[in-house]
Inverse folding.
């Protein structure tokens, strides 16, 4: 039996949250792929770096493209690593995530990679997201969210070196 060739892959994305309405919510998207027997996957926005792009720049760009929202990075989150086989090759993939807040945009402007994009509660995400690794990451992110005192979520992350924003 032939051994599979191996390669590595890297992506970056984010958990975009809002505290509007008193209860925290986040953005998720429905991705449908040909041959997907599940009818699609509910997942967090993420994607592959362009040449010369930092992981933070990739995360901001991919979230903007896939959700239609402009975002700011507030803090790093744990990365997710997994392995899959594609076209006869074993791929070890790491996805780097950041906690983000929206600074503008509109979900209606999301690109074709997601069939549907919407805000959901953190509790709903734990039942809706397809992959256990993402559900676990959402639980971790929820524990980091500030209790608002009217100052907004940025106040809780003031001074973090991870505040990055790209212009649209």
């Amino acid at each position: 039996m032939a051994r599979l060739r191996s390669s590595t892959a890297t992506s970056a994305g984010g958990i975009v949250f809002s505290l509007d309405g008193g209860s925290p919510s986040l953005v998720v998207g429905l991705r449908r792929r040909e041959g997907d027997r599940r009818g699609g996957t509910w997942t967090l926005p993420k994607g592959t770096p362009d040449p010369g792009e930092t992981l933070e720049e990739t995360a901001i760009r991919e979230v903007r493209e896939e959700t239609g929202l402009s975002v700011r990075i507030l803090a790093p989150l744990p990365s997710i690593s997994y392995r899959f086989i594609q076209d006869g090759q074993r791929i070890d993939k790491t996805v780097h995530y950041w906690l983000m807040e929206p600074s503008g945009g509109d979900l209606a402007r999301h690109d074709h990679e997601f069939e549907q994009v919407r805000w959901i509660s953190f509790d709903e995400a734990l039942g809706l997201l397809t992959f256990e690794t993402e559900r676990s990451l959402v639980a971790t992110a929820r524990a980091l969210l500030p209790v608002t005192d009217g100052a907004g979520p940025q106040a809780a992350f003031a001074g973090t070196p991870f505040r990055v924003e790209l212009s649209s």
Summary: Confidence is low (pLDDT under 50) at residues 149-168. Residues 50 and 156 are 31 Å apart (CA to CA).
